[in-house]
Amino acid sequence: MAATDLHAQLMDGSITLPLIKAWEKVTWNVVKRGDFWVIVNCDQWAFTWLILSKEVKDLERNGEDLAVWAELEAEILWSDVVTDEGYYVISISKLKQEDVWKRIVAQQESDEIITVIPTEANLWWLLVDMHGIKWFIPLSQLAPIHYPRVEDGDQEKIFDELLKLLGQEIQVRIINFDEDARRMILSEREWLREERQKVMDELEVGKEFDWVISGISSYWFFVTIGWGVEWLVHISEITFGHVSNIDWLGDVGDEMRVKVIWLEDGKISLSHKQLKPDPWTIIPQQYGVGDIIAGEVVRYVPYWVFVRVYEDINGLIHLSEIGNTEEGVRSLKLWSVVKAKVILLEPHNRKIGLSIKAMKEDEGGKKADKESAKK
Question: What is the pLDDT of residue 12?
Fold first, then answer.
């Protein structure tokens, strides 16, 4: 009904205005909206009111339909709230808060798993704002896969990791709530407690599992299984050889098969390398003292050069076995492939000694023998 028709009917008495009281729940229709406001009416244009910008943003963030002609329920604020344009103000969020809070109480009492979407973050928690009701997820209550693991404790990096969780759906349980302040503490870890217990019940020494790398530090891989259980694999249990950079062995999200090698009182030790044959049992079958090996230069330390000879096993070349010249050292560039002679092989001590000088001396001797033979 147009506003002019409504006015005529009011004048001739064919219709009367309904009585709307402050804080009364009313059904409205959206009739116009701008970038930061929405105008609604009820009872066929009998009343036209305004939803302010802050509430518009909150409603849209929580999935409310504010398209033109959409129907929604709202409460009337006190009649002295009037804009400069003469519009009275209504509030939908206050009505939504009551519905949300009633649902929260029921979910908390039934220990229900709920889905939330974080809207803000700081260095201590994620914040979920549902129509003005504050929900907090402390960092300590995040699942292992979401925990911002930053080795050097750089706060800027931690904050950047938390920002990645904004807008994502996260499943949680309510672990504490304040009815007076209408604030709650949520836990993603508690959502996983049944799964965690199930995994822990299945763990046995000697059993193998497919875990996922959830974090990396200087000497450890953090690995998770089923999101709920996270443990550590030390670099010494990842590979048999020396590794100067653990990042070479895997990335976050990679799958890693591990073996349970110790289990006591809920604490476990895991190993990846024990699922592979020990390379020190294979190397003596392939090489012997006097053999020539081609390998990649992977590391330098004072007086020594490390050359990869088999998978991640390195042989060592002492400075004196390079030729003891500056030119000889410079010739061994990082990641270049060099040839060297095996001069020491002690599998029980896990040592391989190599020599470039001895190889060149052998080549020089063979060349001299050939020249002598020609004479």
Answer: 62
- How remote is the C-alpha of 118 from its chain's centroid? 14
Q: Which of 323, 167, 172, 298 is nearest to 242 (CA)?
A: 298
More confident residue, 326 or 25: 25
What is the secondary structure of 72-95 as a DSSP string? EEEEEPPTT-B-TTS-EEEESHHH
Question: CA 275, CA 284: separation in Å to the nearest integer?
Answer: 20
3.40.50.1400, 2.40.50.140, 3.40.1170.10, 3.40.50.720: CATH of 199-275: 2.40.50.140
Name residues whose C-beta falls within 8 Å of residue 342's C-beta, 6 or more positions apart in sequence.
287, 288, 289, 290, 291, 292, 293, 315, 352, 353, 354
- Give 153-173 as a DSSP string: --HHHHHHHHHTTTT--EEEE
Orientation of helix 93-109 relative to helix 53-61, angle to 10°: 30
Using the predicted structure, report yes or no on whether residue 329 has a pLDDT greater than 60.
yes
| DSSP SS3 for 52 | coil
Q: Return the higher-pLDDT residue of 210 and 366.
A: 210
